[in-house]
Amino acid sequence: MAQDRPEDYAPIYAAFTAPISRFDCGKHCAPLNGGEPVCCSTKHAVPIVTVAEWRHLRARTDLWHIYRPRDAVGRQIKEELATDLRAVECRGAARCERENRSISCRTFPFFPYVTNDRRFLGLSYYWTFEDRCWVLSHLGVVDREFVDQCVRAFEACNEIGSEDLDLYREHSAAMRRVFSRWKRLIPVIARNGGMLAVDPKTGASRPAGAGEFPRHGPWAEEPASCAS
User: Fold this and answer.
1) What is the tally of structural domains in the chain?
2) Cβ(158)–Cβ(165) under 8 Å?
3) Which of 61, 78, 83, 128 is the most exposed place for a label (fewest CB within 10 A)?
C-alpha cells in the first residue's frame, strides 16, 4: 500500500463538501452539550489524522492544533495512537472553516462497514454516540450526495494508504459482537443510498427502512416518522 503525502488530501477535500443532511443536526445535539455540537467537542470526539494530513492542514489554516488531553481518557487516546497518527483539535464550532475540516470531521459519525470477506457494504456508525448524536436516531435524513462523497473519500484514503479497510473490517466485527449482545440489527446506509439491516450473528444483510431501527437517548420517544 502506498504511503500518504500531504498533497494527496487536496483533491479529497475538494471532492468531499456535502453536509450529512439538509437539516442542521448540530442544532439538535448542541443544547445537550453546552451549546456546542457533540462532534465539535473533544470532550466527546477527538479527531485523528495521519501525519501527512496534519501537514496538509497546517499548510492551509491555523484552525487546528495538536490535542491537549484534559483527563485520563484523553491521555489514553494519545498514548494508544500509532506513530503515524496525530490527535488534533480545532478552535470550535463558532470558528469552523468548513473547507478545512479534517476527513474524520467530514465523515463523523460514520465509518465503512466491511464484511468478513472484505466487501465494503456502506456506512455504519460509531455506536457509542447513539445517546448524543441526533443523526443516529434519524438515519433517514442522511443525503445521498453525502453518502456518495463519503464512500469515495474512504476509498481514496484507502488508496493512498491513510486508511485500511481491514481495520474497518475488525471494527465492523466488533460492532457485530456488541449488537449481538444487544439483540439488535445493525443499520448500514448502503453505497447506493438505501438502507440495509445486518444480522449481527450471521452477518447476513437485507434491505430495510430507516424506521426499523430504534431511536436513542433524548430522541427515543419521538415517532418514527419524525425527521427534523
Assistant:
1) 1
2) yes
3) 83
Q: How far apart are CA 186 and CA 181, in angstroms?
A: 12
The pLDDT tens digits of the residues spanning 173-184 come to 999 999 999 999
The residue assigned the cell 497518527 is: 85
Q: Is 162 inside a domain boundary?
A: yes
Q: Is residue 171 part of a domain?
A: yes
Question: Which contiguous run of DSSP H or E holds residue 122?
Answer: strand 120-125
Give the CB-side neighbour count of residue 200, counting CA atoms within 13 A. Answer: 18
Q: Give the amino acid at 105.
A: C
List pLDDT tens digits, range 99-146. 999 999 999 999 999 999 999 999 999 999 999 999 999 999 999 999
| CA dist 30 → 37, 97, 136, 140, 190 (Å) | 4, 18, 15, 20, 28
φ, ψ for residue 166, nearest 5 deg: -65, -35
- Please indicate, yes or no, if residue 227 is contained in any of the structural domains: no
CA geometry: angle 92, 93, 96, nearest 5 deg = 90
The pTM assigned to this predicted structure is 0.92
**Cβ contact 120:113 at 8 Å:** yes
Domain membership of residue 225 (yes or no) is no
The range of the structural domain enclosing residue 41 comes to 6-219
